[in-house]
Design goal:
alpha/beta, Rossmann fold, 21 strands, 454 residues, six-stranded parallel sheet
Length: 454
Amino acid sequence: MKALFVNPYQFALVSRKGRIYNRLWPPLELAYAAAMLERDGIQPTVIDANAEQIGPAEVAERARGFDKAFVTSTSLDRWQCPQLNLDPFLRYIEALKAVVPEVYVLGSHGTVKPREMLELTGATAVVRGEPELTVAEIARNGSLAGIRGLTLPENGAIVDRPDQKPIRMDDLPLPAFHHLPMGRYRYEVLGRHFSLFEMSRGCASDCTFCLLKTYGVGVRTKSVDTLAREVEHGVKRFGVRTAYFIDLEFTILRKQVLEFCRHLIKAKYDFAWCCQTRLDLVDEEMLQLMKQAGCRLIHVGVEAGSDRMLQLVDKGITLEGIRRGMALIKTAGIETLCFFMIGFPESEARDMEDIVRLAKELNPTYASFHITAPYPGTKLYDMVRANPNVHFSDGSLFPEAIEARFTLRELKRMTRSAYLSFYTRPSYLLGRLRKGELRALANQMRLFWGYLQS
């Protein structure tokens, strides 16, 4: 049996719908799934069309002779914030259906809209949730009978099988990086020779806007020993020099973070990394140890610019907590990337002004301003559907925005204005130049320009 995994190419640096930046990051979950098949004696192939920048026709030509194809609409780094434009993904599905007997859909879109995605794609089945266990069962079994986590046609009807059990994180094998074009991956603010790793899956928070369905319920952790083996595997065998620990709340596992950082310090790798967390989940001791272990950047979701809006979206943090956490990170000498969201249903003009004002006050190394996307499967999506005074900006399965007091056009204009107001400040530009960050600043300006043109 020959199994193929495909990560589609998005065809643009910045997707127009949602202004999503299509980074060249490895599809980590496909590397895990491929390794699980190898463990079962099945030879997989992974085509990362996004990294190779190849279209559906070439992928289909390379897919001839395979028995099953698994195509992801969202690699792991996009489980929480999936693409809103499905057209590129659908083009790969159609091309593969012409040459492969069985084609399966993976990713967040199928997890939250499984029946619609099955009808839209005409796939053999939709795999809901994290894919590794379900994919391994499909590959090793002669039929789909009894396999959980699937939505598929049966006896003239569409059937939702029971959910797949969550995978035990320590049961994941070493990712099959040898099936990926590792030399192509990069993160502009860290560098090349880049990979993803994860210590946990899931989130302990309950924000209204976050899409968590693909992760399952709660937070599942990986032991420090397992994570250390994965990093060693990447660094020593594949030359990984930069990485993003893709956990949604990396520092919530404080004891494990401290232990892991001590391991990295002792290992003395040539290795810089970043992570994502909440600003109320950091402290001085942890941050100092992270800095010593090679942490160069922390992603944090600030989202709103006032306590009123933070409370409305169930962020679970105050402006005081945000300011305190940012001060701690800056004192530790670690760079920051802050995310801000524009266009919640309750947003007024003053809320947009508050966001830009707070961004300038916090003055992170990088600021990202995005229109709030109402992802199906979130509390926000359900709230919009139940409120007759607001509506989605379009009628697609995955709408781009919420139109309440402002239209999509107005929200785009506000987002553009926020970027210009933050990044064109003389104090910001001079601050970066004084630190000798000319190359990083040039890369950042190219990305900034790409956003403005989208």
